[in-house]
Design a protein that fits this description.
about 325 residues; alpha+beta; Phosphoribosyl-aminoimidazole Synthetase, Chain A, domain 2; 60s Ribosomal Protein L30, Chain: A; five-stranded mixed β-sheet; about 35% helix; disordered C terminus
């Protein structure tokens, strides 16, 4: 596959298509934030809603799990529902406090498998499941999980600046699932996993990270693009620098969803300390690009470079009036 074909394939990937679905909610809701925090203090576009609480921020997020995943991998869907929410909280420099779920099922057998998966993840990460909604009379199985966390120092998607290093940290101690573009590194001792996630709030509290997100269904390319859109900047992604597991092609890896993966914008004088924090925990990390003012995401290899997305011409998660702005 040529680099041009790779760039085109990333653009058309299903992960990015799902992210573009967010435009509808952004159009209808982004400019209707009100309440005791004030519109300017709650930025819509982060992995969690960050609500100022005086000495920090309460973090609130929710994930609906794909019906296809619930049907095909019932226990795994329960596990992922807790994991992805926790990752959203950690990505913003926070620590999870508790989760609740909304579970619909055709009966106790399917529901039990989903709950077993949730229990495994909650136990591994040390996050209590404190309540929710359960319906066993549904004609189908469906799952959504919400989380609350807290951050004393916040990592947002809105503060990347031209000149920042693009840093990734990905746990490569895992395997690619054959049926989904999902890199599974969850077969880890509970304490190791908790300590690995603790990297993010510690980096935030040390003031070492300018902006960041957890790598989600859009893969590395799509997640970076969302960060760039929120910050109103661009970047070049250097393909040859991206930590990648053996036997996984670049095209698949750029759009894969790793169970542990973060992309960060870091001021260059602080980059070595960020890389060292991941390295000390056995997490693969590298500088994979540089933030610029172009509002374009490109990918390069050697002297060749191709455009993935031009945010000045087309939004990803927001309409034209919202690009590069806080809500």
């Amino acid at each position: 596959m040529t680099l041009r074909e790779l760039a085109a394939g990333v653009r058309e990937s299903i992960g990015l298509a799902h992210k573009r679905d967010i435009q509808l909610a952004a159009e209808k809701l982004s400019w209707n934030v009100a309440g005791p925090w004030g519109r300017s203090l709650v930025a819509l576009g982060d992995d969690c809603a960050a609500l100022p609480d005086g000495s920090g921020h309460l973090l609130l997020a929710i994930e609906g799990i794909s019906p296809e995943l619930v049907k095909a991998s019932t226990r795994a869907s329960g596990y992922c529902s807790v994991l992805v929410n926790a990752s959203d909280v950690f990505s913003m420099g926070g620590r999870p406090l508790a989760v609740v779920d909304a579970l619909f099922s055709t009966g106790p057998e399917v529901a039990g498998q989903i709950l077993e998966g949730m229990h495994r993840a909650a136990s591994q990460l040390g996050i209590p499941v404190v309540g929710g909604h359960t319906n066993l009379q549904s004609p189908y199985a469906a799952l959504a999980v919400a989380i609350v966390g807290r951050a004393t120092s916040l990592i947002t998607s809105f503060d990347a600046r031209a000149g920042d290093d693009v840093v990734v940290g990905i746990d490569l101690r895992g395997k690619m699932l054959p049926e989904n573009p999902f890199w599974d590194a969850t077969d880890a001792p509970a304490q190791r996993m908790r300590d690995d996630y603790e990297i993010l709030p510690k980096l935030a509290e040390a003031g070492l990270v300018r902006a960041g997100k957890d790598i989600s269904m859009g893969g590395l390319a799509g997640t970076l693009l969302m960060l760039l859109e929120s910050s109103g900047v661009g970047a070049n992604l250097v393909l040859d620098r991206i930590p990648c597991p053996a036997g996984v092609g670049s095209a698949r890896w750029l759009t894969a969803f790793p169970s542990y993966g973060f992309v960060l914008a870091v001021e260059p004088s602080r980059t070595e300390r960020v890389l060292a924090a991941f390295s000390e925990r056995g997490i693969a990390s590298a500088v994979v690009g540089t933030v610029d003012a172009s509002r374009k995401l490109t990918v390069s290899s050697g002297d060749e470079r191709h455009l993935i997305w031009d945010l000045a011409r087309e939004g990803l998660t927001r309409g034209p009036e919202a690009r590069g702005r806080r809500a």
